[in-house]
Amino acid sequence: MTATPQRRDPRIVIVGAGMAGIAVAHVLKQSGFNDFTILEKGSDVGGVWHWNRYPGLRCDVPSYGYQFAFAPKPDWKHVWATGDEIQRYHRDLVDTLNLDGYRYYHSTRGELLNRLSRTDEAKAAYAKALELTESEPERQFLLQRLR
Ligand SMILES: Cc1cc2nc3c(=O)[nH]c(=O)nc-3n(C[C@H](O)[C@H](O)[C@H](O)COP(=O)(O)OP(=O)(O)OC[C@H]3O[C@@H](n4cnc5c(N)ncnc54)[C@H](O)[C@@H]3O)c2cc1C
Questions:
Q1: Whose CA is nearest to atom 5 of ligand 1?
Q2: Which of 40, 62, 64, 44 is nearest to 52 (CA)?
Q3: Of 35, 67, 82, 117, which has fewest CB within 10 angstroms of its CB?
Q4: CB of residue 83 inside a 6 A radius of ligand 1
Q5: Which atom of ligand 1 is least distant from the CA of 42?
Q6: Pocket lining: 136 vs ligand 1, CB cutoff 6 Å
Q7: Centre of ligand 1 from the C-alpha of residue 116, in Å
Q8: Secondary structure of residue 9 in the 3-state scheme
Q9: What structural domains and CATH numbers belong to the chain?
């Protein structure tokens, strides 16, 4: 007898709203997955292009080679785009792809852990990790999360 495929509704966490996070979110949406959250510790999207602001920051490959194939931008201002323009490209993309509603910003690792550790899934994962760990500091950390 052939097993009937079961529809899954997974909960997926993407850590970081840099280029990789945006691309993964886009592919997930395209594939019909909507139950995901993007956790970003910064105050905006773009990853390194959000964090780095030093004068003269630019792409070191031509801009058209640094954009997503699924989101071509024909009007880069420079052949080697500035960091600011690249970050704006990412921000606009998140708006265009309607990814904003999936994001959750947090400012500290503690805040993230607190949020994650409240879920039953997190507790089960901590318990499993506790069974497997051989490191005493890690064991103490996990015990704390489980209290
Ligand atoms: C100054 C600079 C210039 C660069 N220039 C180029 C270039 O010209 N061409 C090129 O190909 N590559 C360049 N790179 C490499 C660049 O890192 C990659 O091209 C690309 O931006 C990496 O994207 P990413 O999403 O993988 O990582 P990132 O851009 O680093 O994004 C990761 C995101 O995850 C978030 N994050 C991390 N940990 C956590 C956590 N625990 N919880 C929540 N959020 C978290 C971060 O805040 C960040 O927003 C450059 C890198 C730097 C630093």
A1: 59
A2: 44
A3: 35
A4: no
A5: 47
A6: no
A7: 23
A8: coil
A9: 12-107 (3.50.50.60), 109-147 (no CATH)
Phi, psi angle pair for 49, to nearest 5°: -80, -15
pLDDT per position in the chain (147 positions), as tens?
444 444 444 478 888 899 999 999 999 999 998 888 888 888 889 999 999 989 899 999 999 999 999 999 999 999 999 999 999 999 999 999 988 777 666 555 555 555 556 667 677 777 888 888 888 888 887 888 787
Establish whether residue 14 lines the binding site of ligand 1, counting it when its CB lies within 6 angstroms of any ligand atom: no
Exposure of 113 in the CB half-sphere (CA atoms within 13 A):
9
| Max CA pair span of the chain | 65
Both tokens of 38, joined, read 């993007």
pLDDT at 44: 85
Taking the CA of residue 125 as centre, how many other CA atoms within 13 Å lie in the half-sphere pointing to its CB?
8
Sheet holding 103-105, edge to edge: 12-15, 36-40, 103-105
Structure tokens at 29: 């949406």
Per-residue pLDDT reduced to its tens digit, 126-145: 788 888 888 888 888 788 87
| N residues, the chain | 147
